């Protein structure tokens, strides 16, 4: 409600050409709130407010803007205004911005920047966008190891306004080799005449420039870091990754896994400009693949049609069997996919985890099998149906547990994302195996009756 009121106030101020009111509103906003507000304004309204609001503040909200709003602003900003915005933005945010533009647009914007800054941005653009190098910033605090605490503090006062994170100070030698790290609190409380090499922590948690961004985020989460240094193969400091970028990575990876678990490509709900056809083409291929895969269930039923015709009551329990098997498999799958993503599970722990899951699965299978067996017996009044349904439930849950536990490990071993094993794919596989177990047991028992 407050956001809607704020939008209404800005729109009213634009209509009344009240520049003082607009300046007052925007001066009190956080960058994220400013980005949300700007996204709700029309092109003409944006054109009016740009000369009024602080370009320095707009720069900090630029990375929060959606692609459409960002493009509109780029068209309205003069070269001189763009120069101010780009010089105020952090290097990783500028690299992300240029990565979304055409080569021609990127070159034009780079020309507006200082040569040194432009060269740093071009280096960042050369890294894989999902690697540590692709998300790092080159604005950090680094001081040579032979400096005293007093000298380090004097240098920090000079350059701190140009850095994104001032909580950690990284200690380097003349070759930029990373030697250690110290926090700002430790630096402020240390003896002013001590050398940095005497008080630094030489064991540094760091990321290599080609490390996957998800692994970097997991490291930061594991060690509760606000930033992590990025080094090359020679241990030379190249940049840092800050906690806000790590949070973005975690959100991005979680979103990607959810889409994969639903067997769909990434589709931004709020991106209405993509249109219906875009959503159709992203979902349809998966649905067609699953359509043919699900036909295997029909093939299994057709193969055992004779058994089904002899005891029609068998059909009553098909939804229960396939549904419960799918649920059991999804439970095991969710634990493994999450464990692999967070680093709690790896291939070395596969057999230990599999043994645990088999025991859990066997226990739950026995209980569920007994329950459905009794229900089938009292409902249909025959031991045959009770025995077949109960045994089928028991073996289906165990199979589902094995499939849900092992397949993600196998996919991870092959170098793919374990999340693709989830959702419809695993359910379809368990449906087919469950039906095969069910009708195979029915056929065997029928022959002995």
Automatic annotation (TrEMBL):
<dbReference type="GO" id="GO:0015095">
    <property type="term" value="F:magnesium ion transmembrane transporter activity"/>
</dbReference>
<keyword id="KW-0129">CBS domain</keyword>
<dbReference type="GO" id="GO:0046872">
    <property type="term" value="F:metal ion binding"/>
</dbReference>
<comment type="subunit">
    <text>Homodimer.</text>
</comment>
<keyword id="KW-1133">Transmembrane helix</keyword>
<dbReference type="InterPro" id="IPR000644">
    <property type="entry name" value="CBS_dom"/>
</dbReference>
<comment type="function">
    <text>Acts as a magnesium transporter.</text>
</comment>
<dbReference type="Pfam" id="PF00571">
    <property type="entry name" value="CBS"/>
</dbReference>
<feature type="transmembrane region" description="Helical">
    <location>
        <begin position="419"/>
        <end position="441"/>
    </location>
</feature>
<feature type="transmembrane region" description="Helical">
    <location>
        <begin position="385"/>
        <end position="407"/>
    </location>
</feature>
<keyword id="KW-0460">Magnesium</keyword>
<feature type="transmembrane region" description="Helical">
    <location>
        <begin position="284"/>
        <end position="305"/>
    </location>
</feature>
<keyword id="KW-1003">Cell membrane</keyword>
<feature type="transmembrane region" description="Helical">
    <location>
        <begin position="358"/>
        <end position="379"/>
    </location>
</feature>
<dbReference type="InterPro" id="IPR046342">
    <property type="entry name" value="CBS_dom_sf"/>
</dbReference>
<feature type="domain" description="CBS">
    <location>
        <begin position="200"/>
        <end position="256"/>
    </location>
</feature>
<feature type="transmembrane region" description="Helical">
    <location>
        <begin position="311"/>
        <end position="337"/>
    </location>
</feature>
<dbReference type="GO" id="GO:0005886">
    <property type="term" value="C:plasma membrane"/>
</dbReference>
<dbReference type="InterPro" id="IPR006667">
    <property type="entry name" value="SLC41_membr_dom"/>
</dbReference>
<keyword id="KW-0812">Transmembrane</keyword>
<keyword id="KW-0479">Metal-binding</keyword>
<dbReference type="Pfam" id="PF03448">
    <property type="entry name" value="MgtE_N"/>
</dbReference>
<comment type="similarity">
    <text>Belongs to the SLC41A transporter family.</text>
</comment>
<dbReference type="InterPro" id="IPR038076">
    <property type="entry name" value="MgtE_N_sf"/>
</dbReference>
<feature type="domain" description="CBS">
    <location>
        <begin position="136"/>
        <end position="198"/>
    </location>
</feature>
<dbReference type="InterPro" id="IPR036739">
    <property type="entry name" value="SLC41_membr_dom_sf"/>
</dbReference>
<keyword id="KW-0472">Membrane</keyword>
<dbReference type="Pfam" id="PF01769">
    <property type="entry name" value="MgtE"/>
</dbReference>
<dbReference type="InterPro" id="IPR006668">
    <property type="entry name" value="Mg_transptr_MgtE_intracell_dom"/>
</dbReference>
<dbReference type="InterPro" id="IPR006669">
    <property type="entry name" value="MgtE_transporter"/>
</dbReference>
<protein>
    <recommendedName>
        <fullName>Magnesium transporter MgtE</fullName>
    </recommendedName>
</protein>
<keyword id="KW-0813">Transport</keyword>
């Amino acid at each position: 409600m407050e956001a809607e009121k704020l939008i209404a106030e800005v729109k009213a101020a634009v209509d009344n050409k009240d520049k003082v009111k607009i300046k007052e509103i925007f001066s009190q906003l956080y960058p994220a709130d400013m980005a949300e507000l700007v996204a709700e304004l029309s092109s003409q309204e944006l054109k009016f407010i740009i000369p009024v609001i602080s370009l320095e503040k707009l720069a900090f909200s630029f990375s929060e803007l959606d692609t459409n709003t960002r493009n509109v602003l780029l068209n309205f900003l003069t070269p001189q205004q763009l120069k101010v915005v780009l010089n105020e933005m952090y290097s990783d945010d500028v690299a992300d911005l240029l990565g979304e533009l055409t080569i021609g647009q990127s070159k034009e914007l780079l020309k507006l920047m200082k040569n040194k800054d432009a060269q740093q941005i071009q280096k960042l653009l050369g890294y894989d966008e999902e690697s540590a190098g692709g998300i790092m910033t080159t604005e950090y605090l680094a001081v040579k190891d032979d400096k005293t605490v007093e000298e380090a503090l004097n240098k920090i006062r000079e350059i701190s306004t140009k850095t994104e994170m001032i909580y950690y100070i990284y200690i380097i030698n003349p070759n930029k080799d990373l030697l250690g790290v110290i926090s700002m609190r430790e630096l402020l409380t240390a003896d002013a005449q001590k050398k940095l090499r005497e008080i630094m922590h030489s064991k540094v948690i760091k990321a290599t420039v080609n490390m996957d961004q998800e692994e970097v985020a997991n490291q930061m989460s594991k060690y509760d870091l606000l930033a992590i240094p990025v080094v090359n193969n020679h241990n030379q400091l190249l940049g840092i990754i800050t906690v806000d970028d790590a949070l973005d990575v975690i959100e991005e990876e979680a979103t990607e896994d959810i889409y994969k678990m639903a067997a769909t490509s990434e589709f931004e709900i709020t991106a209405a400009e993509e249109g219906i056809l875009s959503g159709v083409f992203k979902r349809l291929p998966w649905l067609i693949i699953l359509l043919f895969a699900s036909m295997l269930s029909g093939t299994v039923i057709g193969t055992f049609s004779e058994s089904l015709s002899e005891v029609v009551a068998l059909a009553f329990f098909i939804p229960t069997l396939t549904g419960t098997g799918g649920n059991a498999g999804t439970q095991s799958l969710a634990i493994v996919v999450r464990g692999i993503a967070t680093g709690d599970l790896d291939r070395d722990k596969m057999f230990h985890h599999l043994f645990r899951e088999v025991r859990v699965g066997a226990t739950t299978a026995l209980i569920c099998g007994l329950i459905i067996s009794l229900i089938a017996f009292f409902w249909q009044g025959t031991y045959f149906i009770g025995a077949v349904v109960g045994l089928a439930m028991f073996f289906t849950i165990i199979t589902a547990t094995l499939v849900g536990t092992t397949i993600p490990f196998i996919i991870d071993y092959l170098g793919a994302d374990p999340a693709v094993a989830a959702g419809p794919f695993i359910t379809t596989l368990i449906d087919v195996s469950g039906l095969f177990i069910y009708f195979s047991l029915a056929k065997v028992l029928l022959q002995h009756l």
